[in-house]
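Q: How would the structure tokens look for this protein?
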Amino acid sequence: MANIIGAGGIRFCPDCNNMLKVTEEKKEAMDELVEISELQFKCSGCGFSQAVDTESRPQDNCVWKQVLRKDPTAQQAAFHDVTNDPTLPRTTRECSKCLQSVPHSFFRIADPTAETEMALYFVCSNCAHRSKF
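A: Here is the predicted structure in token form.
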């Protein structure tokens, strides 16, 4: 009997319809120093078990996937919010974008382009333009 794959790749027992859980089964080995393990889909209700097929469709056996992407709009919004933060220090200087002499918030964070350097950022309170020093 084949197991039933539901939404999101969750597998269900073909006998009792309970969700199958992935377990690790230890196998006997010829050599005492070698330990062999095999992944099994196992039903906690009726005891049904089936070996995980890691060769044919590995995407069906994915348990967790985390995709990390940089969202440039989120970073821009974070820099814009900096101008309203009362805890950050401020200095008055001329903005290179709007050319007005207005207060700038400034802070220091790790430079995303360099692995070890810190960068000093100034954010204009008028136009939220940021400049790096």
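The chain has one helix and nine strands.

Helices lie at 72-82.

Upvote if useful.
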